[in-house]
């Protein structure tokens, strides 16, 4: 339990640093990006369930960006008050020291919520009916004993919605076993070539063409060699001819 004033001040600064939307009521464009992966829609559907959402997968697969995009959707589309959304990156060096310290300066989830309530000047139990606090904990495996922190509040039916991400398969597996029946998991893999093209080119017409081809399993030929793809005269493929040079260059980058 964190007891010293210095530790609480550090936590306040971390909360303000990681949650700029408390001030601006919007997500900085540099964080959310414009391209939306198809899995984003699926993740948003999970919010209907009374479970913690656990997003797992290798590092550098876009998990953090997905978290920011979810936050953006909550604020702009679902009109969730920005102050009801807490994000913390558990691999932040300062937060790692606070969550894994063996001294009195070690913090737990109740410390975070306590400082949050002080900043907001309102306790969580004072929330309106059906109102929740959305707690995003990125790279959760860096927090020693994270699963017990989550379980404590989940079992007490606190008005908290947990959205977690993690990259360490073994640590995430051990943690999720303690939360059996309390989580819904989604595995995030590296971009498919279709996603890579859509993200890089930002061409709505091309995206529509490729999506139609993908549905017909024609896009799979791209993975066998882009050069051969344009040698035929199949009508759907012909639509890609104006883009073939760009696609070849991006395919080389993708590999």
Automatic annotation (TrEMBL):
Domain AAA: 51-197
Gene3D superfamilies: P-loop containing nucleotide triphosphate hydrolases
Protein name: AAA domain-containing protein
Organism: marine sediment metagenome
């Amino acid at each position: 339990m964190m007891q010293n004033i210095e530790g609480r001040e550090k936590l306040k600064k971390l909360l303000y640093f990681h949650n700029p939307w408390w001030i601006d009521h919007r997500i900085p464009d540099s964080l959310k990006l414009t391209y939306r992966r198809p899995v984003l829609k699926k993740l948003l559907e999970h919010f209907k369930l009374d479970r913690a959402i656990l997003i797992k997968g290798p590092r550098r697969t876009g998990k953090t960006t997905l978290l920011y995009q979810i936050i953006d959707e909550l604020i702009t589309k679902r009109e969730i008050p920005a102050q009801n959304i807490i994000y913390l990156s558990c691999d932040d060096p300062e937060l790692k020291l606070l969550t894994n310290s063996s001294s009195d300066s070690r913090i737990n989830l109740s410390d975070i919520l306590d400082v949050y309530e002080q900043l907001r000047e309102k306790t969580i139990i004072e929330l309106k009916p059906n109102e929740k606090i959305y707690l995003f904990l990125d790279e959760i495996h860096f927090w020693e004993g994270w699963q017990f922190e989550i379980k404590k509040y989940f079992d007490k039916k606190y008005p908290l919605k947990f959205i977690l991400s993690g990259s360490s398969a073994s640590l995430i597996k051990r943690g999720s076993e303690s939360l059996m029946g309390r989580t819904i998991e989604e595995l995030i893999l590296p971009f498919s070539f279709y996603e890579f093209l859509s993200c890089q080119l930002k061409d709505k017409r091309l995206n529509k063409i490729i999506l139609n081809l993908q549905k017909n399993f024609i896009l799979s030929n791209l993975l066998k060699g882009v050069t051969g793809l344009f040698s035929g005269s199949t009508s759907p493929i012909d639509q890609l001819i104006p883009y073939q040079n760009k696609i070849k260059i991006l395919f080389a980058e993708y590999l």
